[in-house]
Amino acid sequence: MPNVTIRVPDDLKEEMDDHPEINWSEVARRSMREYLQKLRVAEEIASESQLTEAEAEELGEAVKHAVAEHY
Q1: How many domains does the chain have?
Q2: Residue 63 is part of which domain span?
Q3: Against a cut of 0.70, is the pTM above it?
Q4: What is the pLDDT of residues 34-70, one digit of tens each?
Q5: Is the pLDDT of residue 6 over 90?
Q6: What was the pLDDT predicted at 48?
Q7: 53 in a structural domain
Q8: Is residue 62 assigned to a domain?
Q9: Residue 70 half-sphere exposure, CB side, CA atoms within 13 Å?
Q10: Burial of residue 24, with CB atoms counted within 10 A of its CB: 0-12 exposed, 13-18 middle, 19 or more buried
């Protein structure tokens, strides 16, 4: 299995050190797998979309503004 080095801020490392019982490598692996699964789903949805990239960006901006106004 290849190794990957991840840099974290000092304050995050200090908090992680407060919990030596946690396998942080496993936490990172799970998080990466979950993120990749979300990417696969998004890519699958995008591959079936008939929107152009510009239209998708415009729609995304409209959704962001609507959510911001709502909250």
Answers
A1: 1
A2: 10-70
A3: no
A4: 999 999 999 998 888 888 889 989 999 999 999 999 9
A5: yes
A6: 86
A7: yes
A8: yes
A9: 6
A10: middle
